[in-house]
Design brief:
627 residues, alpha/beta, 9-stranded mixed sheet, 18 helices, rod-shaped
Length: 627
């Protein structure tokens, strides 16, 4: 190998080793990024192409430019059908037969619908010897002898069959001329602008990315065009370092012009094509651009007109072209192949890094969206609890007045003429008073506390808090989940008992029973009963307003009738508040989890994977600088 080849081989080897290491390192740590992994795998595949010594020459050009004629001349055999109609409708890979073998046609067909471009790519690897000999899964092959009849039957298909036919690619082995020595593969492609096999054929993208040399064929009647430019742009996107040779096929139909005028026209067309190819960024050497009448060469090779000196001269001119291409291209094919491999690897690296840039930008946007949503919910959580409220209290002035009013009412009914009431009747008067006060106090306290309104107030406030959470969800671009808010019952007001507030035994002394026999009169007078009622009212309601020494009544004592009830009711209110708060918090947490996971399913794994992607980007950038 030359020094240049050794340097290129060392670069290719190093790049492949580094990329293989990187693929092994990151294929599991960034498993959630299939686009990056696909590009990374493709990059490693591109870097691996240097291992195989085959050299792919892609023959392309507009329909009826003379591609097939040129391929036949290079192959030294009839391998590409020529006709006044469009003939080549799918790729043919032409290679030199192995020593001792017959020339064959191998037809690869697709058994089922699938990725045709990917299958063609895999088939070419097998033809080149990169993969095993058996066709890939889903592809069948059939082998035929290389004969004109089989070429017409297996390769030259009608236009109406080109899209629906199952054939993917044909592989043809031939004796080959000078340009097909040393594992050189010629790929004959359909014309750019054909009725069916045109620039949109996926085979173009696939095969163009594998080419080590492009032979662009144009003719006087079918020169470089906008469709040709589209193909060259596609090629530039994937394989811009591939060198280009130009064959201008002369159709000498303007016989009435002078030889000088015809030569000037041909030179002008050739120069225009060279300029256009260079404008698109390709390397094209004018010394590897030729004008030749391929039809005359073909007729001269066939000895159709042995006495025609012009044909013999054109054949000689073609042989000089073969000599030049062999000397300048084929003999340097290893250096060219390695250089193009590096170029393709570099381009694929750029695409991979661009894909990583897009993914990191997407992830940055997701991370910002995630943080914004988290902030929204944090602010919502801070204001989510039900507002602090004062404990429910009783208006003791109203209750005291109520008891005193009840006492006055009872006193007004005492019979002043009945001064000899028994103990039981005196007690009954006080007990009835206490029971009446219990009913009045209970009813009045119930109205003051308004438990039903409190229940509705808490439920309404909870709905408002849930509404805040829903607004947070909507502001994050999500749809809030429905939630049922049942009204939580605080409970009925417990019965109020004032019985323990008055000790009847102390309040009402026992007096002797009345005895008519001994004519003794005793019992409790009306004045006594009035006193008992006033004392009972004082025990319950406390001293009158303005008294110097205020006595606290039973209704407001800590262990009295009202405070325990208020404590119980307030505890029930706080329990309802706690339940509403828990409902709001749970709904908020669930909504937050659902919204955040809708943005990033697992933030910890997402951050770890993002770090790996950044690390991968840095490693690939270093490799790119070295290539």
């Amino acid at each position: 190998m030359t020094q240049e080849e050794n340097i290129l081989l060392a670069k290719c080897t190093k790049a492949h080793q580094e990329l293989a290491r990187i693929v092994g390192k990151y294929q599991t740590t960034i498993g959630d990024c299939p686009a990056i992994l696909a590009q990374l795998s493709k990059t490693e595949n591109r870097s691996r192409e240097y291992v195989n010594g085959t050299f792919i020459v892609l023959v392309v050009g507009p329909v009826k430019s003379g591609k097939s004629t040129l391929v036949n001349l290079i192959a030294h055999a009839y391998v590409s059908p020529t006709h006044f109609l469009e003939c080549t409708v799918r790729p043919s890979v032409i290679s030199q037969r192995r020593e001792g073998e017959d020339c064959k046609i191998t037809v690869f067909t697709c058994d089922t619908a699938g990725d045709r471009a990917g299958l063609i790519d895999a088939i070419i690897d097998r033809i080149r010897g990169i993969e095993g000999e058996e066709p890939p899964l889903g592809v069948s092959k059939a082998v035929f002898d290389l004969t004109p009849e089989n070429i017409r039957e297996k390769v030259e298909l009608g236009l109406n069959e080109s899209l629906s036919a199952e054939t993917l690619v044909t592989s043809i082995t031939t004796p080959g001329g000078r340009l097909m020595k040393q594992n050189v593969f010629i790929i004959d492609m359909p014309g750019f602008d054909g009725e069916q096999a045109n620039i949109d054929n996926p085979a173009y993208d696939t095969i163009a990315q594998r080419a080590d040399l492009i032979i662009f064929v144009q003719s006087s009647n079918s020169a470089i065009s906008k469709v040709s430019t589209q193909f060259l742009r596609k090629l530039s996107d994937n394989n811009k370092d591939v060198p280009v040779c130009l064959i201008h096929n002369i159709f000498d139909s303007a016989w009435w012009r002078t030889a000088e005028e015809r030569a000037t026209a041909v030179q002008s067309q050739k120069e225009f094509a060279i300029k256009e190819i260079r404008r698109l960024g390709f390397s094209i050497d004018e010394n590897q651009c030729f004008s030749i009448n391929l039809g005359m060469v073909e007729d001269g090779r066939k000895k159709c007109y042995p006495d025609c000196q012009a044909l013999n001269e054109e054949v000689q001119a073609y042989e000089r072209i073969e000599d030049i291409l062999h000397e300048r291209v084929i003999s340097r094919r290893d250096a060219m192949r390695l250089n193009v491999c590096l170029g393709r690897t570099r381009q694929q690296l750029e695409k991979t890094i661009a894909t990583i840039d897009q993914e990191l930008a997407r992830r940055h946007q997701l991370a910002e969206q995630y943080e914004q949503a988290a902030t929204v919910f944090s602010k919502t959580e801070a204001t989510l609890g039900l507002q602090a409220r004062k404990p429910l209290t009783a208006d003791y002035n109203i209750l005291r007045q109520l008891i005193r009013d009840e006492a006055r009412s009872r006193i007004s009914l005492v019979n002043t003429d009945n001064n000899h009431q028994s103990d039981s009747k005196a007690r009954k008067a006080v007990v009835n008073f206490i029971e009446a006060c219990e009913e009045s106090v209970s009813a009045t306290l119930g109205r003051c506390l308004a438990i039903d309104l409190k229940e509705e107030e808490l439920a309404l406030e909870c709905r408002e808090r849930i509404g805040q959470v829903k607004e947070a969800v909507i502001s994050c671009g999500a749809i809030p989940q429905a939630v049922t808010i049942d009204r939580i019952a605080i409970g009925e007001l417990p019965d109020i008992s004032l019985e323990r507030g008055v000790d009847l035994d102390l309040l009402i002394p026992r007096k002797p029973r009345i005895s008519l026999i001994v004519k003794q009169f005793g019992g409790h007078s009306a004045e006594d009963v009035v006193g008992y009622l006033n004392k009972a009212a004082e025990r319950l309601a406390g001293s009158l307003p303005g008294d110097t020494d205020h006595i606290e009544g039973y209704i407001e004592k800590e262990a009295g009738a009202i405070r325990p009830v208020l404590l119980q009711v307030n505890a029930q209110v706080e329990e309802a508040v706690r339940q509403y708060d828990a409902l709001c918090q749970n709904y908020c947490q669930q909504s937050k989890k659902r919204v955040l996971e809708g943005i990033i399913a697992d933030k910890t794994a997402f951050d770890a994977e993002t770090e790996q992607i950044v690390s991968l980007q840095q490693e690939l950038s270093i490799i790119k600088q070295r290539i």
